[in-house]
Amino acid sequence: MVLLKSFVLAGLTAVVAAKSAVLDLIPSNFDEVVLKSGKPTLVEFFAPWCGHCKNLAPVYEELAHAFEFTKDVQIAKVDADAERSLGKRFGVQGFPTLKWFDGKSDKPTEYNGGRDLEALTAFITEKTGIKSKKKLAPPSSVAYLTDATFKNTIGGDKHVLVAFTAPWCGHCKSLAPTWESLATTFANEPNVVIAKVDAEAENSKATANDYGVTSYPTIKFFPKGSTTPEDYNGGRSEEAFVAFLNEQAGTHRAAGGGVDATAGTFAVLDEIVTKYIGGTPLTDAAAEVKKAAESLKEDAQYKYAEYYIRVFDKLSKSDSFAAKELARLEGILKKGGLAPTKLDELTTKTNILRKFVEKVTGKDEL
């Protein structure tokens, strides 16, 4: 009975092992599989008791499955606690250590990038030109910063919201999809960057230390032109982040993508529209809008101040222009399929046109 049980367990273990796409390396096969095969190979040196190794394991397995269709790149691992000679041979001093063997040299380079699937996949594609056939999430709009790129990103002409994270952190994993969605929402804002720093990666932990990050996730906001951040302590829903950034950066984004109902509108110009509806002659209102728009030239949305001028010009030729143009643009928006930048542009124009149409409706009722 004991013998049968052992046999069954051994069989189950073999089945589980067979499912793994990661190559297991030991001293007797290392040279043959890695150094003499001519195939680029990413090798993880791990220890079974290492917590970070356990966190990396499912990601590393997924990485191997993502490239198992090709025979031109290999994903492998070494139990460096059991096979200490291999760890010593390649200068492994901590776990997990990832080393890249290019298939030509026996001297590897150490991988110090992010330990998420996207970062690892991008690294292999960059090194080999081979793209994963596994359907990954759409390209991320999050800026993944390192010690080198962080200093080049903050303090310039962009507002930067940064999440300092760790691969093993449960709260970080919960935040991740919201952070990705937030970055997509602000992807069309040239003055806003949604960034992330892997605070435990070798190439970015110094930055985390510089800013006193001791828990995860820690979120900091760097206003444009400043390297001194303010801690973000608000809610962690996309709506909360969007509201915070709109206030800080003067943007008009809407949670989930697109722009809000105030995008492109200016209170000073709306007041002139109101006066026009109230009886101010169109030529006088048009001249006043043109003059007022001059003071808005430094505003990031200035081109929409010019759109007010255009609407007044069109109204001088047809008093039904605003209503007809609003209906046309709403029809286009309803069909969908627009590129994000075009969607923002048309939505913003409808915000402005609606000011005229709503007011005109009120005038007609009088």
TrEMBL record:
<keyword id="KW-0413">Isomerase</keyword>
<dbReference type="InterPro" id="IPR005788">
    <property type="entry name" value="PDI_thioredoxin-like_dom"/>
</dbReference>
<dbReference type="InterPro" id="IPR017937">
    <property type="entry name" value="Thioredoxin_CS"/>
</dbReference>
<keyword id="KW-0732">Signal</keyword>
<feature type="domain" description="Thioredoxin">
    <location>
        <begin position="131"/>
        <end position="250"/>
    </location>
</feature>
<protein>
    <recommendedName>
        <fullName>protein disulfide-isomerase</fullName>
        <ecNumber>5.3.4.1</ecNumber>
    </recommendedName>
</protein>
<feature type="domain" description="Thioredoxin">
    <location>
        <begin position="8"/>
        <end position="129"/>
    </location>
</feature>
<dbReference type="InterPro" id="IPR013766">
    <property type="entry name" value="Thioredoxin_domain"/>
</dbReference>
<keyword id="KW-0676">Redox-active center</keyword>
<dbReference type="Pfam" id="PF07749">
    <property type="entry name" value="ERp29"/>
</dbReference>
<feature type="signal peptide">
    <location>
        <begin position="1"/>
        <end position="18"/>
    </location>
</feature>
<keyword id="KW-1015">Disulfide bond</keyword>
<dbReference type="InterPro" id="IPR011679">
    <property type="entry name" value="ERp29_C"/>
</dbReference>
<keyword id="KW-0677">Repeat</keyword>
<dbReference type="InterPro" id="IPR036356">
    <property type="entry name" value="ERp29_C_sf"/>
</dbReference>
<dbReference type="GO" id="GO:0003756">
    <property type="term" value="F:protein disulfide isomerase activity"/>
</dbReference>
<comment type="similarity">
    <text>Belongs to the protein disulfide isomerase family.</text>
</comment>
<dbReference type="InterPro" id="IPR051063">
    <property type="entry name" value="PDI"/>
</dbReference>
<dbReference type="InterPro" id="IPR036249">
    <property type="entry name" value="Thioredoxin-like_sf"/>
</dbReference>
<dbReference type="Pfam" id="PF00085">
    <property type="entry name" value="Thioredoxin"/>
</dbReference>
